[in-house]
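Our preliminary data section would be incomplete without showing what the modeling component actually yields. Below, a chain of 244 amino acids is followed by its predicted structure, encoded as tokens that our downstream tools consume directly.
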Amino acid sequence: MQTLLQLENLSVIYQDEYMVAIHKPAGLLVHRSPIDKQETQFAVQLTEGIIGQKVFPIHRLDKATSGLLLFALDATTARNLSDQFMNHTIQKTYLAICRGWATESGHIEHALKYKRDKIAEKMKREQLEPQSAETAYKNLATTSVNHTIGRYEQQRYSLLELKPRTGRKHQLRRHMNHIVHPIIGDTKYGDRHHNHFFSEWLGQHRLYLAATQLQFLHPKTSEPILLECHLENSFQHALNKLKL
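Predicted structure:
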């Protein structure tokens, strides 16, 4: 059942002879990871099966995040696109449902401590200092729901457009928690009471964060490229219920 569901939700958005972009469903890893040894399905292998050729990962999306994921189809293109990511010339856009009513727009500049993993554990201590991180956001819509949580009888939520200027691990999730507007469904940095409410109310559990756009220069022609990605049905279902 899981295989059928993920294959159904994974779709090719764009493809030419240099690169391919897919919609990655929430819950699917980009590639094998020592953190999730029990997983048997990965976006890399599924995409290769669909298009019939090897792909080169350029960037990552968290397992819980859905949306636009770009792969190169050769090593030269991979280097070009990786350089664009490293130089922050690729513009990434996400949508997120967050707790509370955020301001109309804002810019978050908050350094994030390096997240240790098996690779980081081997690095020198001075390489693990907090890294600069920047995120711009725009409040697209707000809503409220009549439901008691704690001493509040009505709950407020915002639909935010997020544009990370840097690419730190869990940057958007950590930044939104930092400004006290955590993303709904975030089990690590979010609010468990609101996460539980959404799970019970909607009959589904997911992180309400989706990669929706990528803007960059074509690795061969240098022409501007804008790729857009639809929202997963579970994300759209939440927006419909919230009337956002």
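The chain has a mean pLDDT of 91. The chain is about 25% helix and 30% strand. Preliminary results of this kind motivate Aim 1 of the renewal.
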